[in-house]
Write a structure and sequence with these properties.
Blueprint lengths: L5 E2 L17 E2 L14 E2 L12 H4 L31 E2 L12 E8 L20 E3 L2 E5 L4 E5 L6 E6 L17 E4 L11 E6 L4 E6 L14 E3 L14 E2 L5 E3 L2 E4 L2 E2 L12 E5 L5 E5 L22 E3 L4 E5 L21 E6 L5 E6 L15 E7 L2 E9 L5 E5 L9 E5 L13 E5 L21 H10 L17 E3 L13 E3 L4 E7 L3 E7 L3 H10 L5 E3 L6 E7 L14 E7 L5 E6 L17 E4 L3 E4 L6 E6 L5 E6 L9 E4 L5 E7 L12 E7 L3
Parallel strand pairs: 4-37
Antiparallel strand pairs: 1-2, 3-5, 5-43, 6-7, 7-8, 8-9, 10-11, 11-12, 12-13, 14-17, 15-16, 16-18, 18-19, 20-21, 21-22, 22-23, 24-25, 25-26, 27-28, 29-32, 30-31, 31-35, 32-34, 33-34, 35-36, 37-38, 38-39, 39-40, 41-42, 42-43
């Protein structure tokens, strides 16, 4: 039997960036170890690196790569991380459809060579990147800041740019999910840096590259680089806790970027501001701070940072920002009130950073329920009117549908009473916002610490022992000085992989991970003792000090022997929602741990949809990429990847006229999935 995920056991205490998977389920020995790096472009009929280009061109030195003879039509591109500024993850290409998708085969494989070698935090390595297809090339980053430009049809390397990230330094997260592209409408087409690639690094720099050569744009900030860290107030010795891990957003000549910040090391983890920079000069245009740092009672907070990907509506001049929780995650006694605009989706004026509206998904967060997915923008006919909506999925399993002009709910949202906290000096929010439709994607009615789920008696005994005496009061069970069950867990629900939307059928595709976390607050003076016991036991818990508060925090995933979740399956699901009505059209288990057909598997990553009626998604810890029928969710095709594809795929039409589907296959260090450095492209065979 294939062994499913088990709990991550860090080699040393670390602080995890907002919402990124410090306590996600962790894979075991079933995951495949990647072989040593091979030549970087591997094709059935073409071998070699940087085919036809000099080494200097590969390294982004002087010289401009030749442009394709003719630019493909716009629907053939994938010019942004989420396919477009709206984050729809939709392609109008219909070449691959349910009738032929089973014929997909590997067209080419590219290897970046990044396996975390010689890096202090190489064991945390991920490859969560989604390439973009922009003006005839593919662009993608690695976790340590190397950007590659590839030929979309062959996978051959055109150039690379190494940001020079210090691999000896420790980092809260080791990931980079994507890049952004922008063409200056005022620059001559052949001018250097007329087309630019923007990306952020895990050492908190924003870099602008010439899309044609990979050279830094000298007229952008200081030699093509903005150092973001000096703009924050995070202490110098906590630099590892201030990063950029997601693709920037470019709208109306402004590059908008937010930081990823380490959780729970302090009551005030620092400035979580979103910033907008001039796309030509790199000059700072505006700063928006998401949460009031000082409270009336003298306490302080920080973070509420936008670590995930933003969306934009150029016609409205708005950028839509998903924000994280205020610090620290699990005790709010020093930050009373709802903590607006933490745990929210907000609309800012792209030109000025002015707040236009905000919608908070969790009040006074005590669960690390960041808004992780990219907001998805669509125009939908509802009640006889065409409404510009924003669909925001969440870690809670909720999906909120808002009018993106005003932030008002399109469907009902009710403030419902939730359990109060027994922790001294904690004042939990008395209510939380529940959408009336769509229905929750995660049902906690079967969660019971005394009656866990397991495949056998040994598993039941282990799950019961872990949660003995634990308290579960449903969604929004507040943490306490006793052990409580948090379901969904802090990295569950819908995470950074986001959602996808088919405008022709009006269907929103939403992945969700279902697992639980066991959590407990501990008195500040017992943190060191708890860490010593944890170290002796092999680090089963994540323990955070939450300095400046009366309490530290300890948590672990509730998983039994072999990493099987102690909560009822399915653990990974994909749901299709009719955005016009909010009704669920279908829901399917996703992935396979080899236990039972309807169990699914843990997942982390997102879907894409095509006009051909196909949903493509990897994400599953079982190491496959799959195609589902958009109409009913049935599995049409799957292929094993050389490493787990913990990323979101993309698609485009190549110069040879074929539709390609591309996925980064790199495993996931914190989830225990063995590292890989593969970019794999699938296509139908040429007749």
């Amino acid at each position: 039997m294939r062994r499913p995920p088990r709990l991550a056991r860090p080699r040393r205490p670390t602080s995890a960036a907002r919402g990124e998977t410090s306590t996600a389920p962790r894979a075991t020995s079933a995951a495949r170890r990647a072989p040593p790096p091979a030549p970087r472009a591997t094709l059935p009929l073409l071998l070699g690196t940087c085919a036809g280009l000099s080494l200097s061109a590969c390294d982004g030195a002087a010289g401009r790569a030749a442009a394709p003879a003719a630019d493909p039509p716009p629907e053939s591109h994938w010019p942004a991380y989420g396919a477009d500024a709206a984050g729809t993850r939709f392609s109008a290409i219909a070449d691959i459809h349910p009738g032929n998708v089973a014929g997909l085969q590997v067209a080419w494989t590219f290897r970046t060579g990044e396996l975390g070698q010689d890096a202090r935090d190489g064991d945390k390595l991920t490859f969560e990147a989604t390439p973009i297809h922009f003006e005839g090339a593919l662009y993608l980053p690695t976790a340590f800041g190397t950007v590659f430009a590839l030929d979309p049809t062959t996978g051959a390397e055109r150039w690379r740019h190494d940001a020079g990230v210090d691999r000896r330094r420790g980092y809260s997260e080791v990931t980079s999910r994507g890049v952004a592209a922008w063409r200056d409408p005022e620059a001559p087409a052949d001018e250097t840096c007329a087309a630019r690639i923007f990306y952020g690094t895990i050492d908190a720099r924003l870099i602008a590259l010439d899309a044609a050569t990979g050279n830094r744009c000298a007229d952008f900030a200081e030699g093509g680089v903005v150092d973001l860290f000096p703009l924050s107030d995070v202490p110098a010795d906590e630099r590892a806790n201030y990063q950029v891990t997601s693709a920037p957003t470019v709208v109306d000549g402004v590059v908008v970027v937010g930081p990823s910040m380490g959780d729970n090391w302090n009551a005030d983890t620092g400035d979580g501001s979103v910033r907008g920079f001039d796309a030509r000069t790199g000059a700072l245009r505006w700063t928006w701070e998401p949460v009031a740092r000082a409270s009336p009672g003298g306490g302080r907070t920080g973070a509420a940072n936008a670590w995930s990907t933003m969306s934009a509506d150029a016609d409205l001049g708005l950028v839509y920002v998903p924000t994280g929780s205020a610090s620290p995650d699990f005790f709010g006694g020093l930050r009373p009130g709802p903590n607006e605009w933490a745990n929210s989706v907000v609309a800012l004026r792209a030109a000025t950073g002015e707040l236009v509206w905000g919608f908070q998904t969790v009040h006074h967060d005590l669960w690390d329920y960041d808004v992780a997915p990219q907001p998805l923008l669509a125009d939908v006919a509802i009640g006889g009117r065409r409404i510009p909506v924003l669909a925001q999925a969440a870690k809670t399993g909720f999906v909120y549908v808002l009018d993106r002009r005003t932030g008002e709910p399109v469907f009902g949202v009710e403030e419902r009473a939730v359990p109060g906290s027994a922790v001294p000096d904690e004042d939990a929010a008395p209510t939380q916002p529940y959408p009336t439709v769509p229905a929750p994607l995660i049902d906690g009615s079967g969660v019971d610490p005394a009656e866990p789920w397991a495949p056998d008696d040994a598993g039941l005994a282990a799950c019961r022992a872990m949660a003995e005496g634990a308290r579960y009061q449903g969604l929004f069970t507040p943490p306490g000085l006793d052990t409580s069950v948090q379901f969904p867990g802090n990295a569950a629900g819908t995470n950074w992989g986001g959602t996808a939307f088919d405008p022709e059928r009006g269907l929103l595709i939403v992945p969700a991970l279902r697992y639980a976390t066991l959590i407990r607050l501990i008195h500040a003076d017992s943190v060191d003792e708890a860490r010593a016991r944890n170290r002796a036991a092999g680090y089963p818990f994540e323990i955070a000090r939450q300095s400046g508060t009366p309490y530290g925090m300890m948590r672990r995933s509730w998983l039994g022997p072999g990493g099987v979740p102690c909560t009822p399956p399915p653990w990974g699901v994909v749901t299709a929602i009719d955005l016009a009505t909010g009704s669920v059209v279908w829901q399917s288990p996703f992935g396979d741990l080899g236990l039972r057909a309807d169990a699914g598997a843990p997942l982390l990553g997102g879907p894409i949809v095509t006009a051909g009626g196909v949903v493509f998604m990897a994400a599953s810890f079982d190491g496959h990429i799959r195609a589902l029928a958009l109409d009913d969710g049935r599995e049409l095709w799957k292929a094993r990847l050389p490493a787990a594809g913990i990323a979101t795929p993309m698609t485009y039409r190549g110069d040879d006229g074929r539709q390609y589907v591309v996925i980064a296959a790199g495993g996931h260090g914190k989830a225990g999935l063995e590292a890989g450095d593969y970019v794999v492209a699938f296509a139908l065979q040429v007749p």
